[in-house]
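Worked example

This section walks through a single chain of length 391. The input is the sequence exactly as stored; nothing has been trimmed or padded.
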Amino acid sequence: MQIYVFSPGEDWGGALMDRFAAGCAARGHSVGIRYPGAWRKNEYEPCDCAALIGLDSTVLTIFEEYRRHDVPVLLISDGFIMRTGDRMKRYWAVGKNGFHARADQVSFMVPGDRWQALNVRLKPWKTTGKNIVIAHQFAQVPYYGEHKKEAFPPAIAELQNHTDRPIVFRTHPLEKHWKRTETETPSGCIESTAHTFAEELENAWAVVTYDSNAALEAMIAGVPVFTLGQSMIDACANKDLSKIESPLRPDRQQLMHWIAYTQYNPDEFKAGLPCKILIENDYALVSEAATESAHLCPVVHSGEPGPVGIPDEPVKVQVTEQPTQAKTGEVSKIRLASGETVDKLDLEAKLATMKKNYLVRFADDNYVPVNERHKVAELRVEICEYLFRQE
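Given that input, the structure is written out below as tokens.
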């Protein structure tokens, strides 16, 4: 496989991409180093995969050009856990054909080995706290053009309709550095005086943000999170601001396992681990539609009733009878959790009535969005289990 690694030069970014290139070569691939600064639009060089680091306009142009030619692209950016400190020791996010939650990632049902190796304590969910913390963001969504800051004014107005709690407004730590100014604290909000985000969380009832990594930090600290955009923690995040006084507190463990499989350190780059997983598809990938999904984990209500339409237990159906063509993906009879037996056509009709944010889970831990239900017959599995969960 021919892989082009775009290295920014002799700084830390260049050293990082050199390790990435070495890892791809160690996996037996042919690797070419390219310099983004020398890129000229429409100077596309055919290859089997490209790897880029950063978020600037040149990287965006290269990304778009290779995707236009249907070439897979790996995007490397700041990681999620242990993402600060020495750049040659910390973790970096790697996504395929997109940025963070918009990328193709590994299957959600990965093992917990990488999470355990991080040695991070997942604190119990808090059911106390006074403040609602707004973790403000001001930039565009990389590669997608959405202005994050535009989501906050209506969100704050919505919150003020549903709670009397203090709303603490915390500006992004890099806003003043990048823009030479800071967003003014909105009317009805309190300007944050906490020195660190960890300090902010000490008296937090919930955190509201667009897609900031602050959401993950809050979730690890046990603080419920509401996200306004598509984020990496959406499988366990709240979306309905009217529920600010009774936020969901889902089981987060599998989400943490998955997050740990979406980031790598430079030594793992050199060992070829992201190449093995994301280029060679050693672990099954799921599409963007699946990663923006529903709540995949059981909900802990902590005494509060859940939103209407979300069952306490997922609805399961299981294959009970298959013809001899089973290995080609055909299914004849399906038994629902209720004990009712339906044929495949009836199941497809059932799927057609369900909202697109449901997922179908197979026994081999592949997830398929229900709006791509035609793939049900395409997966080569002998035993299937379907798991539905509404957002």
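What to look for: The first helix runs from residue 12 to 26.
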